[in-house]
Please model this.
Amino acid sequence: MESPESFVEAHVAEVEPLLRAEAIEEWESAATGQPEHDERLAELRGKVMRIYADSARFARVRAWHEADGFADPDLARQVQLLYYSFAKGQQDEATIDQITRLQKEAESTFNTFRGTFEGAPRSDNELANVLMTETDSDRLQAAWETTKQIGPRVAPTVLELARLRNAAARHAGFDNHFAKNLTLNEIDQTRLFATLDELARLTNEPFRQVKAELDQTLAERYRIRSEDLRPWHYHDPFFQRPPRLGEANVDRFFAGRKLEDIAIRHYDGLGLDVRDVLARSDLYARPNKYQHAFCTDIDRKGDVRVMCSLESDERWMETLLHELGHAVYDKYLDPALPFLLRRPAHTLSTEAIAMLMGRLALNDEWLVELAGAPADEVTRVAPLVRARQRLGMLIFVRWVLVVVNFERAMYEDPERDLNTLWWDLVERYQMVPRPEGRDQPDWAAKIHLALYPVYYQNYMLGELMASQLSRAIVQRHGRLINTPAAGQFLVEQLFRRGARADWDATLEQVTGERLSAKYFAEDFV
Model:
């Protein structure tokens, strides 16, 4: 009879080259927007999905998983991860074909779409600049509406994908795809929403207070009443980041700078080399290129790359530090780990490192030591910048509450009035009034809802984990910035462990306790 060891060996031999080829085509699709890469990507995804849809293989893996009793804990963990992968993949041939086709359509649209503003196609960076600098409300509204033009294009595709995923989830015994995805990614839904509800309660009054102050500032800027502020007045298409205003705006410290050089200095200060990652990366905007950012580990053997569309400002400095946080986690995984364990403990674990690094773009010590900003000027504005970082975290918490609660409701009932639900949640959590008379799928303009389903909770849990890791680093090594021992701590205690244990057990091994919201609350609430 086939043993678990031989099954794992044969499975890895089959999927490893396919996953590498899939990662390359995904990279080329994002880099070029060319349809031939979309076609090959869809074909490769279909092949991988068919492997994990095999019910006979799933039955063998499930039997081993349920029997447990492995002498080798690494083998037991590999079987457990395979069980999750096969359980996620149980769907019929027709569903696989439909999902791969629809995913291809949605990705192609997001890669190549440019909204039309003032008679010409505009990139996301161009529209972001208008939203941050314009003071005329009518022009702001037009730019904001342009950022939502993609919504009606992709909404039907997103909803059809939700229906297909739900059908597969119900066939596997789950209520819907949202519940299935959380369970098979080792996140307890009850605990997740208890945590989110706790964050909602903790931040409700602090957010109300800082937003009232922000609204007064914005009302003066736009020469309108606070009650007349609308979504286009908040500098970001989704109000997921704080407006960049006054001396708390640190863009001036990055203007005309090569952000890669600053990032290299930062990671050198931790004893982590990112030069090889940057050499393989694609960092600047061009037509038909993916406009957002991501990091990818092509082969789990060192080919780690970052995709960005850099501009010399704080937003892209934070983004580059963030994506390179993912990259160093991938790069410094223990190469001796089995292939199935040679990855971060969880998506939220690598998000924690990315969040931990990205936060530093607003850290006063970091601005002086790594970005080379004038010390006297940073000292003078440091209280304002710290207040802005706290504002940003409060804004982010409330934004995550919108997305995760919306996505749960969407998968519970894709046929409900999602356009209205979206603005109900925005008004409840972000306290931003909906545009009068608007009935558009603005939710579909958020790329994660379209392309990365049931993902957003990882950002919030990652922020909690980042605060917990930061506290552990400070207790052991004094600080993170320019401290090689802190980087070594992350490598030896976290990165090299890979996925040998679930994310919460891994965090306990690193910090001495399981995930808690208390450190994030102490930092920012």
User: Anything to note?
Assistant: The first helix runs from residue 4 to 32. The chain has a mean pLDDT of 97. The two ends are 57 Å apart (CA to CA).
